[in-house]
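Predict structure. Chain length: 189.
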Amino acid sequence: MMTKNSYYLSGLFLLFFIWSCSGPSTNNAGSEEGSEMESASEEERASPLKTTSGEIGNKSITVQYGSPGIKGRAIWGDLVPYEEVWRTGANEATYITLEEEVLIEGQPLAPGKYSLFTIPRANDPWTVIFNSDWDLEHGHFQYDEEKDVLRVEVDPTWVNESQEWLSIDVVSDGLEVKWEKLVLPITIE
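Prediction complete.
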């Protein structure tokens, strides 16, 4: 003879069994809804994830980065402090993929994937850093200087027109990091 608790446990087991066997829906409407939800979550990022690629000479280069906006904030020396390592973007670390060896500001860098960091300065050249840890979920919070592969110095340019969203573009002679009134040209051959 079953007790009241036995009936209760049997009922819970049966409900769990039915629920676990139902599995995800495979109809087309559900798939479309899932895709829309994934797209919506990507659009909801405060700093959209961007990917840019191109060729310099015959060398393919791809960059992935989070693109923050100014949103009325003071950027240089405030949101992005001077003299501190910056992930050169938002959220996860910005990274670059090189298909062939290149020269960065005249210094060789082997093919591979590298995170891209910078050290902004108020009145001096910026340090541009290529680090072997490219897949960093929390950007500069996980940065390890011992894994730097290359550091170069680059002179920033300040322009009159402000750009709301950070961009990193592959141009004919390298990369251009642009945000607010900054243009940081990184020469790549």
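Summary: Confidence is low (pLDDT under 50) at residues 12-41.
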